[in-house]
């Protein structure tokens, strides 16, 4: 846990939770105060809740290891922290890491990681003048295959 002086200096920050067995991040978040440590406490106290992040934390603890808490950037405004968090999630996911984040990050669809070709298509797309009554819209950008 951070002491009072450290908490005040940190302001908003972006952090990663790492698996000590391979040193790879499994969660990226933004926080203030002792937020980075709350995940461990919640995973161990709330044993009825099962999700990828909590299950990973419990597995690490069961193996006698400690989750690594990495502060990526600190001294940030909340807005800056949101942007950095979203950028990290986009980048790490693009590089093939399976993060346990439920949400990709703020504005990931509109401003997130894209190829140069996607940027050109996005900003040169013609406005839709008419939409039929029988249609389905699919956001392919967030489509994941398992």
From TrEMBL:
Annotated ranges, domain GIY-YIG: 10-102
SMART domains, per the entry: GIYc
Cited Pfam families: LEM-3_GIY-YIG
InterPro entries: GIY-YIG_endonuc, GIY-YIG_endonuc_sf
Record's protein name: GIY-YIG nuclease family protein
